[in-house]
Amino acid sequence: MHYDPIKRSLGNVFNRTPWLRRLFYHLLDLLLLRTWHVHRELRQWSKGRTQDPLTILDAGAGYGQYTYWLSSMSPKWQILAVDVKEEQVADSNNFFRQIGRPQVQFAVQDLVLYQEPNSFDLALSVDVMEHILEDVEVFRNIHASLKDGGMLLISTPSDQGGSDVHGDGETSFIEEHVRDGYNIHEIQQKLRTAGFERIEARYSYGEPGQVSWRLSMKYPILMLGKSRLFFLLLPFYYLLVFPFCLLLNWYDARTTHDSGTGLIVKAWK
Fold it and tell me: Less crowded by CB within 10 Å, the N or C end of the chain?
């Protein structure tokens, strides 16, 4: 299934006013399990740093929800959010100007080519690398762009059923993905090839997270892929499943998983 047209439709709805966009961000924070895991890691990274003038790269910013969340943590952090989609970048710059956050800047950049040597204390890549074939080149560019001691945080599907692929004959649920998921050792080796030495990786989306993902993401996306009329039914659908998804997300984010369909990876320069 092509996911981008559905994302554009959602963006068109929630980009109409700053209030709607803030609401959209908060809904994504609650519904998307990867956000629970990423926020957990970012809170840990930010301890004792909120008063420091740090620089952050949101590498593949998408809707900009992680940039929004990070910019809420400290006005002293300068954040550069990059993406390849010009319209999305323009919309995001307009939104952040409207809400008065001049420390945030969005720019059109290709991560395969973009490099800003020794510039960032933190780089964030959430559900991006599964879309990019030249992943080692991206890792090299981010490594070069980090300051000494800087950290890269990655969220991406694993090969344990990420992209909803569970066998050799299956294809990715999201057709924009160029790989079905990373083997946990494979991504660590690619990061070492790019220059990172200290690397930590763990699974996310264990059994509770996989149930939540199907209820909160897969089934609604399949419905919207059939017809945009399902937009009218979504509020009623989420009224039923939302409480269960919250509980499952909470449990998944606080549990150590021996395997899972997602990976959370941290790498330091």
Answer: N
